[in-house]
Inverse folding.
């Protein structure tokens, strides 16, 4: 099918959000019956691309052509009506009704009067699923299906709406290999019927199994588009990360001490991560790299005692931590800054003051055991100055501060207890460049003072520029720990997607 | 135009005024109510009437303190009035063994009731509305079984008579009790570590947990304290009234929730406090007193009370949206 009809074209699409250029002059085309894979690091612009195509966002510049006609989408419903269906990672099915009802939601066949024609609906649903070899009962409740089965229902639903294009956002992220193979079989049926598929995935192997062409995005730009037969996993990895790092992070000449402060042995949580073992030295910054959803945050939550663990142990200064809870961890000297500023790392409805002093209220009491306003203000003011938090007053609610300043408050709170181990989960996510730099400087200072730091980050340059060593987590297991000399974007990305690039193989 | 120096300094003077207006809406309404009542009824400002109001609403006020604590922790106790009734029954039953025994009995029963609520809500993680709806029926049921459905006659023990009827410095003892409990718990809520943690849990239990706060224990304690406070309120109730009727205690629930919400303690948790509840109590008491002084028929009084609660909830929702910007 060399001269297949171009069903979709995106020409010079750009989209910005405050402070971020999410997409910059991205062009692509999609032939009828083709599977186009879109890959890229976290934040490369894949989601934005999908959302523009599915009518959630509108592009700032550029145009989309559907079958040669200019396409203007006013919303997701518009996109569906024009034949562009998107299957997101999280299911959009209604859980408490049947498969058939979901497939025909909002356009159920009706019989005389306005009654839903159940018989016809069930039969049509059965027919559609049969044509795709999906073996599910149309009368089954969606809530009784596994997530892989629910995905198939979504595919059937999209297909039944005469979709010209089906966009799948990491469809295999949470299903087993067998389920994925099953899904690929169904995708092949879909494309045989002339429908095109845009397939977003982190798993490079899959792309070679199912896609015709692969497009690599990086920092909002198209890096390459190539047929899968003309490229290799190694080349794709290189394209995904090949950016100039520059000396954003200054020198990395600082030294870590010898003493092991934190040791994690064989930590596991069923279905989430397993066999996690590493040690953290005094004054060391240990990076945790990997794709979003690989289990990095969950491991940190397990160490800190926020989530239960099913096996393994954590030793601090050679002593085993007993029953773990955040309170116990904090008392022993482990602090944790969650990646979720809105819901976890700080209390949005509290003032700057109340957030900073939350862990250290015992230090600001009067002799009657009550909180002293004077002492509390003093303590909070000191940290606001030290961390350069930009706030009109100590009474300001944290929710009114910028992301960077919120993060500084979160850090100040955690550091008020003088922890020996500081776990930072995506500390610079979504904050402006200036504050980011300040936080990087702060992390290095802390390490120089002997604090041992775990830095979870999805930004490879941050891991490479900040860390002494970095562990890579993939699908809940620790793939490898890279030493300073081996910290390159290619190595980290290859390990994260499960492809060991030939050049980086070394003999033990 | 004109003189720079007379202009209010700093940016956003207008915003400050607007904010003060929003923050103190209920205080302004209270002042307007007092003025209106003074004009409408000559007897409103008489000491006799005011002390009557204090006696009549001291139990409400004390219970509102407990309810405030529970609501700050993002909960609600629909069984509060039933705890009050059960504690009052315990109080009367134990009166033959002396006033200390009966007071201790009331407090103990209140604490146990609160512990049951708190355990189910904080540890079992059951929904607080359903739990306290259930225990409301259970506590009332137990009280009815004990009394056989009859009124209980409170014995004129001298201590209780003093509590209910006497005055210190011209102000009813009941009023002193109310002020004492309000100021004490107000200070603890605003200035103790446990109080601060309760606000943290009410605003965001996940973040509180990540900050090493045992949120389940804090929530559990808030229900226990509420139970204790209901126990204390029952002592005053039996001191003031010669007869205790289990069935009528349920009226308190509605009134107490109205008072707390009216004051501006947020139903979404973590915002509010005893100062606000005190203002809510005054507004509620004055409106009720006013309706009585103006001889509004009972049916209309009910109507007004219902409307006030709905307005209070709208006010709560308005404030919530304003906080979120």
């Amino acid at each position: 099918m060399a001269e297949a009809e171009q069903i979709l074209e995106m020409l010079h699409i750009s989209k910005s959000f405050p402070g971020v250029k999410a997409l910059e002059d991205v062009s692509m085309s999609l032939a009828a019956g083709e599977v186009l894979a879109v890959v890229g690091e976290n934040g490369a612009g894949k989601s934005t691309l999908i959302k523009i195509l599915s009518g959630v966002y509108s592009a700032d510049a550029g145009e989309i052509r559907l079958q040669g006609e200019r396409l203007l989408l006013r919303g997701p419903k518009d996109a569906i009506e024009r034949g562009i269906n998107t299957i997101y990672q999280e299911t959009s099915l209604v859980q408490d009704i049947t498969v058939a009802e979901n497939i025909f939601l909002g356009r159920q066949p009706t019989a005389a009067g306005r009654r839903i024609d159940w018989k016809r609906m069930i039969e049509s649903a059965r027919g559609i699923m049969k044509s795709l070899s999906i073996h599910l009962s149309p009368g089954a409740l969606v809530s009784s299906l596994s997530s892989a089965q629910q995905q198939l229902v979504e595919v059937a639903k999209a297909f039944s709406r005469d979709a010209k294009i089906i966009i799948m956002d990491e469809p295999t992220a949470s299903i087993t290999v067998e389920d994925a193979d099953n899904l690929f079989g169904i995708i092949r049926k879909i494309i045989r019927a002339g429908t095109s598929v845009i397939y977003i995935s982190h798993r490079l192997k899959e792309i070679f199994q199912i896609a015709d062409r692969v497009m690599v995005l990086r920092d909002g730009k198209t890096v390459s588009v190539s047929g899968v037969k003309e490229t290799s996993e190694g080349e794709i990895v290189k394209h995904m990360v090949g950016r100039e790092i520059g000396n954003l992070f200054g020198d990395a000449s600082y030294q870590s001490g010898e003493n092991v402060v934190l040791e994690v042995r064989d930590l596991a949580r069923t279905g989430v991560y397993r066999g996690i073992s590493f040690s953290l030295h005094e004054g060391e910054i240990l990076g945790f790299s990997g794709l979003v959803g690989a289990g990095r945050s969950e491991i940190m939550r397990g160490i800190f005692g926020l989530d239960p663990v099913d096996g393994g142990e954590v030793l601090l200064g050679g002593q085993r931590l007993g029953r773990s809870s955040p309170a116990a961890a904090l008392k022993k000297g482990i602090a944790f800054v969650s990646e979720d500023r809105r819901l976890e790392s700080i209390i949005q409805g509290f003032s700057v003051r109340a957030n900073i002093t939350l862990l250290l209220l015992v230090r600001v009491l009067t002799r009657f055991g009550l909180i002293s306003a004077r002492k509390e203000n003093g303590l909070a003011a000191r940290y606001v100055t030290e961390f350069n938090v930009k706030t009109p007053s100590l009474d300001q609610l944290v929710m009114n501060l910028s992301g960077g300043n919120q993060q500084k408050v979160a850090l100040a709170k955690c550091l008020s207890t003088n922890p020996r181990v500081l776990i930072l989960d995506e500390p610079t996510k979504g904050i402006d460049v200036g504050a980011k730099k300040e936080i990087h400087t702060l992390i290095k200072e802390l390490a120089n003072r002997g604090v041992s730091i775990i830095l979870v980050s999805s930004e490879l340059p941050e891991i490479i520029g900040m860390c002494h060593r970095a562990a890579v987590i993939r699908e809940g297991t620790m793939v490898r720990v890279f030493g300073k000399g081996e910290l390159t974007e290619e190595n980290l990305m290859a390990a994260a997607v499960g492809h060991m690039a030939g050049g980086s193989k070394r003999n033990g | 135009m004109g003189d720079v120096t007379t202009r209010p300094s700093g940016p956003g003077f207008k915003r400050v005024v607007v904010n003060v207006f929003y923050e103190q809406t209920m205080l302004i309404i209270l002042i307007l109510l007092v003025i209106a009542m003074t004009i409408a009824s000559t007897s409103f400002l008489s000491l006799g009437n005011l002390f009557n109001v204090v006696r009549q609403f001291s139990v409400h006020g004390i219970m509102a303190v407990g309810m405030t604590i529970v609501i700050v922790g993002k909960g609600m106790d629909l069984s509060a009035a039933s705890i009050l009734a059960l504690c009052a029954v315990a109080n009367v039953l134990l009166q033959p063994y002396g006033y200390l025994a009966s007071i201790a009995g009331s407090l103990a029963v209140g604490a146990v009731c609160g512990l049951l609520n708190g355990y189910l809500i904080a540890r079992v993680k059951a929904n607080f509305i359903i739990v306290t709806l259930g225990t409301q029926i259970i506590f009332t049921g137990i009280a009815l079984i004990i009394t056989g459905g009859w009124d209980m006659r409170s014995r004129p023990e001298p201590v209780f008579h003093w509590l209910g009827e006497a005055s210190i410095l011209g102000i009813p003892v009941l009023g002193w009790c109310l002020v004492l409990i309000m100021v004490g718990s107000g200070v603890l809520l605003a200035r103790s570590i446990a109080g601060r943690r309760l606000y943290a849990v009410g605003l965001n239990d996940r973040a509180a947990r990540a900050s090493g706060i045992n949120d389940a224990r804090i929530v559990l304690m808030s229900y226990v304290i509420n139970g204790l406070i209901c126990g204390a309120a029952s002592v005053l109730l039996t001191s003031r009234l010669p007869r205790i009727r289990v069935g009528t205690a349920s009226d308190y629930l509605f009134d107490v929730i109205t008072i707390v919400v009216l004051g501006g303690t947020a139903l979404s948790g973590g915002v509010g406090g005893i100062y606000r509840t005190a203002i809510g109590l005054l507004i509620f008491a004055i409106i009720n007193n006013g309706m009585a002084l103006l001889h509004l028929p009972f049916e209309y009084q009910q109507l007004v009370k219902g409307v006030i609660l709905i307005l209070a909830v709208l006010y709560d929702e308005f404030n919530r949206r304003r906080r979120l910007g």
